[in-house]
């Protein structure tokens, strides 16, 4: 994470004027994270949409396993052996899915998460990061103005600017950018 914040300011020409991009700072990243939280789906909310279906299926499976276990107890007793019971070994999928969604929710917007990497490769994400990086020297820049700049510069140039600002050799697959646009 430290490497993300060792870049420098840079300038570029677009829309008939010079623009200054600030160095990537924690404040910019935190603003990007806040924006990302608004547009990325909430894993917990998504899970809760269908949780009743999963819970009902869990109950159905557990009921069937208990019936089978009762039959197994009878057979094992008749055969004078230890029963092999399954109901107690069944994993409650509803609880498992909720726990995974909770884990995902907290990791969703962390630096390097698949979702944030994907967002940073999308046109929408690049426009937002460009808007935020311009904010220090050009506070009047809106998302729409950043979109105009993005359109004139192209995704590869915005990625290059982001790389200079963050101190990274920023290369993004052209195909990934094309798919995102």
What layout of secondary structure does this protein have?
Blueprint: E1 10-14, E2 17-21, H1 26-39, H2 43-79, H3 93-107, H4 114-120, H5 123-134, H6 143-153, H7 155-166, H8 174-180
Antiparallel strand pairs: 1-2
Helix pairs in contact: 1-5, 2-3, 5-6, 5-7
What does this structure look like?
The structure is a single chain. The chain is mainly alpha-helical. The chain has two domains: 2-40 and 108-180, no CATH class; 43-106, no CATH class. The chain has eight helices and two strands. A two-stranded antiparallel ribbon has the order 1-2. Helix 5 packs across helix 6.
Provide a quick synopsis of the model.
With 181 residues, this protein is mostly helical. The protein folds into two domains: 112 residues, no CATH class; 64 residues, no CATH class.
The number of helical segments is: 8
Task: Work out the strand percent.
Answer: 5-15%
Please list the strands of the largest sheet in the order they lie side by side: 1-2
Structural category is mainly alpha
Fill in the keyword field for this structure.
two-stranded antiparallel sheet, 6% strand, 64% helix, disordered C terminus, rod-shaped
């Amino acid at each position: 994470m430290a490497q993300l914040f060792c870049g420098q300011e840079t300038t570029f020409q677009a829309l008939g004027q010079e623009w200054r991009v600030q160095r990537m700072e924690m404040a910019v990243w935190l603003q990007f994270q806040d924006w990302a939280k608004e547009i990325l789906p909430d894993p917990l909310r998504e899970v809760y949409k269908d949780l009743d279906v999963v819970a009902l299926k869990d109950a159905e499976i557990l009921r069937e396993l208990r019936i089978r276990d009762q039959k197994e107890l009878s057979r094992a007793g008749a055969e004078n052996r230890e029963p092999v019971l399954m109901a107690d070994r069944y994993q409650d999928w509803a609880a498992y899915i909720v726990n995974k969604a909770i884990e995902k929710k907290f990791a969703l917007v962390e630096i390097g998460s698949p979702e944030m990497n994907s967002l940073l490769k999308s046109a929408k994400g690049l426009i937002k990061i460009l808007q935020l990086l311009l904010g220090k020297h050009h506070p009047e820049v809106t998302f729409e103005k950043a979109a105009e700049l993005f359109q004139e510069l192209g995704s590869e140039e915005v990625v290059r600017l982001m790389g200079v600002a963050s101190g990274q050799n920023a290369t993004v697959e052209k195909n990934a950018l094309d798919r995102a646009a």
